[in-house]
Design brief:
The longest helix has 31 residues, at 263-293. Helix 1 (23-49) packs across helix 10, helix 18 (422-434) crosses helix 24 (523-540) and helix 20 runs antiparallel to helix 21 (482-494). This protein is an alpha+beta fold and 775 residues long. Strand 12 and strand 13 form a beta hairpin. Residues 1-308 are annotated as: Uridylyltransferase. One of its GO terms (biological process) is regulation of nitrogen utilization. GO terms for molecular function: [protein-PII] uridylyltransferase activity; phosphoric diester hydrolase activity. It comes from Mumia zhuanghuii.
Length: 775
């Protein structure tokens, strides 16, 4: 039997027209349409089977599936229905009943999505096609043999549960492909209420996951979100007069007016519904992954193992969770540790933990150094930041740390080139910036500016000019120094400078580069602005960072560097010396001591400071760095000076409970040559696909050669670089090691055995030697 051309039009069986935006009325109207369809379908079914013998009439049933099965009929919804018959009913009889059933409905203009199957075919189809199985999970009898339909649905449901472990990964892959193709409801410029990630398709899929009995979801929250999206779709159908799930920008004002919203409020409302639904879906799939991966447990088997990774923070069941000690209510740093660990490890932050953290005190303002360091670690973590930021934003923690975020949350951009809402774009800019941190001297400033570069949007006025002071205030609250906060504010204010001049001015005109140089002031600031510009553009869309635009901007930066002299000097002219705020320590050993060195350990933030004094000699820094590494210490920063034949260094390490005896033992073994650092630390392969940068700052010191290494922070990094310098026959007069998130920026003041700077050719050879290391 052929299928006639579908006739589209409003469903004629139910109260139509512009109705109240109240959820109860819209929900009632959906049920009313379904009830009216039920009545009409029963009437047609009765006429179709009435000529048959009684026994033959009992061989059929009309089954509503999908949205119609749930009695959720929007004005232009398809009517998903299946004519089911017993296997022994003759095919000619089946065809005659189907023809007498469908044609009156087509004549009515009903948008039928119909099928005819035997009971055996229904079971086979549900077994072979997960989409058919999902539809059958919501099946209900409209007419005919209801007990047979109930039995069929029960059998499909039992098979779904029995085979869920094999079938759900297929459904998951299909969902990923759909979202990759359509995008997210909360982020897309054109919102597809059904197919977008966080849309109606995800909501109904979660019902199927719950039906598997492998996972559960908050039913009340899920159903409330789903009903709210259905309300918007109902009004969208009524406003457009046609079947559509796409809420385009030009339709938003009319749909908003019909629902009693201001247009921008409706946009935010729908995006928030999508965001919350997507969060439920992501959490549910993640928990399902854990269930599918775990081995069946006995009744006495323990729960997920708790692996502590930082004070108050642990990994359990593939999530970052709180241990309760220290109590987050008493230690505000626990929240920052949890976020940093989750982002850095690429693990989700437990929703329950995020909710708990949103209710505890935040760090005192301005934030202490350790709080700022942990925040920077999260912002420089790369892609792992995105889901963690989303989790803490939903929980309300972002509002505690950054109240200014409210103005940009879920706000679409007026520019069609943007693929994300402003808030998501800002986080994506952080992700891009994390890949550029070796291009700049201050990764912490870069990633903070990337997060805040659009913070002025949502306010009146030019968002760059408004955002600069806002970003500076935020940076001061977060514990940045006034100078660093001013730099962040200036970067935010200037973040459109390079693309504007590069695309609207002649970059070959010397005045263009001179204009940039005058406004940025120095090379370090220029490098930060160039990296921020690239981060902003690449987070926007490929069109915003085309080869043409990238070439113009990079060309302008090169010319501006030339104007600035490109001295390649470090920003701090006093960088060589011991930090002014730290008194120069006295050596604490003499030749009469049992050990030819001394060690002092004291608490520092959530780690420790280790001070080591020993006789100065070539290779000492490498030996001490290696000893700390094999003692299990993660080095965060270090300072070293030589005075009167003694070398004194202070090392900041992550461990809050350093064992002095163990550390002394390791140092003794290393200095005595009893322990092979090569065997214990060997770097192996490079830690990152991005090559390390080794810079020689020729103009930074007249008495030493300044070598800077920017690389992925890892165990043994300082030891490997310092050893390479020592093996080349040079001494390290002072060292300044800093860590910004995952990025190490280590500066070494290198001298020849007679205490002078290296000749330029030798410095170049040394730099190549360090570049050859697997850093």
């Amino acid at each position: 039997m052929g299928r006639p051309r579908r006739v589209r039009g409003p469903c004629p069986y139910g109260r139509e027209g512009r109705g109240s935006a109240l959820t109860e009325e819209l929900s009632a109207r959906r049920r009313s349409r379904a009830d009216a369809l039920d009545r009409r379908l029963r009437e047609c079914f009765t006429k179709a089977v009435s000529p048959l013998p009684v026994a033959g009439g009992r061989g059929f049933a009309l089954v509503a599936v999908g949205g119609y099965g749930r009695r959720e009929m929007s004005p232009f919804s398809d009517v998903d229905v299946v004519l089911v018959h017993r296997t022994d009913v003759p095919s000619a009889t089946v065809a005659r009943v189907a023809e007498q059933l469908w044609y009156p409905l087509w004549d009515d203009g009903v948008a039928l999505d119909h099928a005819v199957r035997s009971t055996d075919e229904m079971l086979r189809t549900a077994a072979d096609d997960y989409r058919a199985a999902l539809g059958m999970l919501d099946a209900r009898a409209v007419a005919g043999e209801a007990p047979a339909v109930d039995a069929l649905r029960s059998e499909v449901l039992a098979a779904w549960r029995r085979t869920a472990r094999q079938r759900l990964p297929v459904l998951q892959r299909a969902n990923h492909e759909r979202v990759s193709r359509v995008g997210w409801l909360s982020q897309s410029a054109i919102m597809d209420l059904k197919e977008s990630g966080g849309g109606l398709r995800d909501a109904t899929t979660m019902r199927a996951l719950v039906a598997s009995w492998l996972v559960d979801v908050p039913h009340r929250e899920l159903e409330a979100l789903r009903a709210a999206v259905l309300d918007v779709r109902d009004v969208l159908h009524e406003v457009t007069g046609r079947p559509t799930d796409r809420l385009t920008p030009e339709l938003v004002p009319d749909v908003a007016a019909a629902m009693g919203f201001a247009p921008d409020h409706l946009d935010l409302h729908v995006r928030d519904l999508g965001r919350r639904t997507a969060h439920l879906a992501t959490t549910t799939w993640r928990r399902l992954d854990a269930v599918l991966a775990e081995r069946p447990r006995t009744r006495t088997a323990p729960g997920p193992r708790l692996d502590p990774v930082a004070p108050g923070v642990a990994v359990a069941g593939g999530e970052i969770v709180l241990t309760g000690s220290p109590d987050p209510a008493a230690d505000p740093l626990v929240a920052l540790r949890a976020v940093a660990e989750a982002a850095r490890r690429g693990l989700p932050l437990s929703p329950a933990s995020a909710t708990r953290l949103a209710s505890v005190p935040t760090p005192a303002e301005p934030w202490p150094t350790e709080a700022r360091r942990l925040l920077v670690e999260a912002l420089t973590a790369g892609p792992g930041l995105v889901p963690v930021w989303e989790e803490i934003d939903l929980a309300g923690l972002v509002d505690r740390w950054l109240p200014e975020w409210r103005a940009i949350r879920l706000r679409g951009s007026s520019s069609p080139v943007h693929r994300f809402t402003i808030d998501r774009h800002s986080v994506e800019a952080c992700v891009v910036a994390a890949g550029l941190i070796r291009e700049v001297a201050r990764p912490d400033i870069l990633c903070t500016a990337a997060l805040l570069h659009d913070i002025g949007k949502g306010h009146d006025g030019d968002h760059s000019e408004v955002g600069g002071p806002l970003a500076e205030q935020v940076a001061l609250r977060w514990g940045f120094s006034p100078a660093d906060a001013a730099t962040i504010g200036a970067l935010v204010r200037q973040h459109l400078l390079l693309p504007t001049l590069a695309t609207r001015r002649d970059i070959e005109d010397p005045d263009t580069a001179a204009n940039v140089a005058e406004r940025v002031g120095d090379v370090e600031h220029l490098d930060l602005l160039a990296a921020l510009t690239e981060s902003d553009a690449r987070a926007t869309s490929p069109a915003a960072w085309s080869a043409w635009r990238a070439g113009l901007i990079r060309g302008l930066v090169t010319k501006a560097r030339a104007v600035l002299g490109d001295s390649d000097a470090l920003a701090d002219p006093a960088y060589e010396g011991w930090p002014a705020a730290v008194p120069l320590p006295a050596a604490r050993f003499t030749s009469r001591d049992a050990e030819p060195f001394s060690v002092d350990v004291r608490p520092h933030h959530d780690g420790s400071l280790v001070q080591i004094s020993a006789h100065a000699r070539i290779g000492l820094l490498a030996a001490l760095a290696g000893a700390l590494s094999v003692a299990g210490q993660q080095i965060r920063s270090a300072r070293l000076v030589d005075r009167d034949g003694a070398s004194t260094s202070i090392w900041e390490v992550a461990d809050a409970e350093v064992e002095p005896d163990r550390l002394v033992r390791r140092i003794r073994q290393v200095l005595a040559g009893e322990l092979s650092l090569e065997d214990r630390i060997g770097l192996g392969e490079a830690s990152s696909a991005v090559p390390a940068q080794v810079l020689v700052h020729g103009g930074s010191s007249t008495s030493a050669t300044v070598v800077e290494v920017r690389a992925q922070d890892r165990r043994g990094l300082v030891w490997a670089v310092a050893r390479a310098i020592a093996e080349a026959g040079y001494a390290i007069r002072s060292a300044h090691l800093s860590t910004f998130g995952p990025q190490a920026r280590d500066v070494f003041y290198v001298v020849t055995p007679d205490g002078s700077a290296l000749p330029e050719p030798e410095a170049a050879v040394l730099a190549e030697r360090i570049r050859a290391l697997p850093l």
